[in-house]
Design a protein that fits this description.
The protein is an alpha/beta fold. The chain is built from 18 helices and eleven strands. The protein has two domains: 260 residues, P-loop containing nucleotide triphosphate hydrolases (Rossmann fold, 3-Layer(aba) Sandwich); 101 residues, no CATH class. The N and C termini lie far apart (70 Å).
């Protein structure tokens, strides 16, 4: 018997029965295909995720991810363990690492991080293209230039190289290229590609400073006029070939760079405080994209950490957006990592092309993983992600290792799990710990 003083007795049931009785309490997860990431705090079950499986199932229309989180909230731990667990499914990962944090992950995957240092022993050629044809050296210069440009099947290679260099140069000069400068770059890329199947940056500098008469005639000018048009961009590009940024992207790719390794980490930490970091990250990303175009059939995660360094410049932001849009064609899931969603808004003034491009990354990243944010960040997060009032209120109160997941039009609150064997991969707090103390206060 029950009454006002006697509540009904408790009833125990399985979650399967309870969700039938109270279907509004929790939604079903995303299934069990993919890597285990942690616990669904609403449903109470395991949370698994795989961008390729969800794309194949029609749940996602884009495999790209955007990961956002304050320092110390578990963002880096999630990214590293997600990559590590994806290896078990046969995936591969290429990582642009501006802070030097992914070395242990590379070592665990059986390789060493590729450390990029000015004047160092490793070079990456951002103009690489293994599929480019070798031009006939006996052909006339204009014919060789057309072959390098690739009328029809090769035209994509030419555009790819020209757009990359225009992006790098616009970032270095701090302005858009003038029409004459852009034309000079395009013709120099044609000539460099005619002379060498995989041209290097010094080749393009040389072709800008000493253009071909036949190519100059195609734009109704002479050698002196075309050289004048391209002089400023040639001197800026020379910075990567012979100036203070030389010795990283100014030669053929070093033969000891193993692209077949499960994890390829490009360590740019030697230049983390450099104002040219965005340019260098663009070069590194371009080199990875050229390798991706070789289509070896592998599914790959391409991780761009500290993506704000690219977003703040219009030309390089365009480059990153183009990389995101190519993801489906090449079986790639791009993963961009930022600290705050306001980083996207800070890319430029409201209504500016930079800001529209930065915010456009959200549209190209149908999965957004948001760790704890400062209270001041909540309004911009709510606006950009279309959060409900309840979701927005959660953001500033999320504990470490808990993230709000927005997957297409669905939301999840996930506590990410960390295995004991993964601790060495994710430890970024080593320098903050006190040194172990030995006998007699030796500190050892």
């Amino acid at each position: 018997m029950t009454g006002p003083d006697r509540p009904p007795p408790p009833h125990r049931a399985t979650t399967a029965h309870l969700q039938a009785l109270y279907p509004w309490v929790t939604a079903a997860g995303l299934g069990r295909r993919g890597t285990y990431l942690g616990r669904d705090l609403h449903g109470g079950g395991a949370f698994c995720f795989d961008p390729w499986e969800l794309y194949a199932a029609g749940i996602l229309t884009s495999p790209n991810l955007l990961v956002v989180g304050q320092i110390g909230r578990g963002k880096s731990t999630f990214v590293k363990t997600f990559v590590w667990r994806q290896l078990a499914l046969g995936r591969r990962a290429w990582i642009v690492d501006p802070k030097g944090e992914y070395g242990p992950l590379a070592v665990a995957g059986g390789s060493s991080p590729v450390r990029i240092v000015p004047g160092g022993g490793v070079r990456l050629n951002p103009l690489d293209d293994a599929s480019a044809p070798t031009p006939d050296p006996s052909a006339p210069a204009e014919a060789r230039a057309r072959a390098g440009a690739g009328d029809a099947p090769g035209s994509g290679r030419f555009r790819h190289r020209a757009e990359l260099l225009c992006s790098i140069l616009a970032a270095g000069l701090g302005r858009d290229l003038l029409p004459a400068e852009r034309t000079a770059v395009e013709l120099a890329v044609r000539l460099a590609g005619a002379r060498r199947a995989a041209p290097i940056l010094p080749d393009v500098v040389s072709c800008l400073l000493d253009p071909d008469p036949a190519l100059a005639a195609t734009v109704r000018t002479d050698v002196a006029g075309l050289a004048a048009d391209g002089r400023n961009v040639a001197l800026e590009l020379r910075r990567l070939a012979e100036g203070d940024l030389a010795g990283m992207f100014d030669g053929p790719t070093s033969p000891n760079v193993d692209l077949a390794a499960p994890v390829v980490v490009l360590d740019l930490s030697a230049l983390y405080d450099s104002p040219a970091l965005g340019i260098l990250m663009t070069c590194a990303t371009a080199w990875l994209q050229a390798a991706i175009r070789r289509r070896d059939g592998r599914k790959r995660l391409v991780v761009v950490d500290e993506a704000w360094a690219i977003l703040h410049d219009l030309a390089t932001a365009r480059w990153l957006q183009a990389s995101f849009k190519l993801s489906r064609a090449f079986g790639v899931a791009n993963l961009a990592v930022v600290h705050r969603l306001s980083d996207l808004q800070a890319a430029g003034a409201e209504g500016s092309p930079q800001r529209r491009l930065a915010e456009g990354l959200l549209a190209d990243s149908e999965t957004r993983v948001v760790f704890g944010q400062a209270p001041s960040e909540v309004p911009s997060a709510r606006q950009l992600l279309g959060l409900s009032a309840t979701e927005a209120e959660l953001l500033s109160r999320l504990p470490r290792a808990v993230a709000l997941w927005k997957v297409a039009d669905r939301s999840f609150l996930i506590e990410h799990g960390l295995g004991a064997g993964e601790l060495a991969l994710v430890d970024t707090d080593q320098a903050m710990r006190p040194e172990p103390r030995g006998p007699a206060g030796t500190g050892r």
